[in-house]
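BUG-351 | component: ligand-complex export | severity: low

The export step for zinc ion jobs runs without errors, but we want the raw record kept on the ticket for reference. Input record follows.
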Amino acid sequence: MSEIRRNPFSDNQNEWTILSSNRLNRPWPVRDEKILEDNLTVYDKDCAICPGNIRQNGDINPNYKSIFVFVNDNPVFLTTDMQEESREENLTLNEQILFQRKNERGVCKVVVHTPEHNKTMKDMQAKEISKVIQAWGTDYQDLGALPYINHVAEFETRGRELGNSLIHSHSQIWAQEHIPPKIMSEINAQKQSSDALGKNAMIAYLNEEMVRKERLVYANEHFGVVVPFWALWPYETIIIPFSRISSINELTGSETDALAKVLSILSRTYAILFERPINGAPYMLGIHQVPTDNNNYIDYQMHLHMVTPLMSANRLKYPAGYGEFFGLQRDVKPEESASKLRTIAENLNKD
Ligand SMILES: [Zn+2]
Ligand SMILES: [Zn+2]
């Protein structure tokens, strides 16, 4: 069973920590990962998600030709019909205040991006990436329609620096009962800013960045990419649609292709900047979409965050002492990182 626990010493009522100990069983490559990454082949007999291989739970992967979606063998949440358990009875006041916890139901899926073990987002054609985006849209819709699912998180964690347990290109879907704290925080903030401006604040922000240009990395007819004015990570980017969109399943065909082009250019840009020509730079990609609890989120604009932990080719950024205990701090000016990313992206866009 998975549960969420709340820190009674945080004033954020939405901040819960997910506890799911079953994740520790997930497969980890025990071989030398550096050697492994340098010698990646199109098929790996030891990979859990290559076509035709047997997974940890005994299932055999089909001989898929493009994408492959399956329920995670080591989910954070368990697929279950159990009802919210009543824990309220007989709780002491100390337990009610200091040990707050709730059961968390959900479904976790894996989206394998390509049958080729050694191919990452940066090597994929835009039309191949479009299929991945369509899969995210389908599962956002299908999982979000389940009665106990109120939020669908879709994200990719790429690279051994980030503790990725599977080298083969894939993303994850965590559909869950509670709305995650960062989404609740953004919903409240987007509403406040939009109310103050009298228009959608995130679209207004993108339009303003298009005029200022100093933090702009790349734009096409449907999406703009900027290093946010408030960025924490040295080479953090945010991808925002120009028109009002709530979730990824709302994208039209041409919007899907435009987003695929963004992801292709950004993953190649990071690979070039950080001198990772073969396997690309490590990154985290997260899609922020409206919750699926049927409430009205009129001000919440869908967007994507892409973050690499790298500061330079051989240096990682850690949120150290001050960052962990007090607040956020940044070393590189967003305008400088945007300028470096933009120069590379502009060259790639000429191809
Ligand atoms: Zn593989
Ligand atoms: Zn966001």
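Assignee comment: Attached the raw record above. The longest strand covers residues 151-158.
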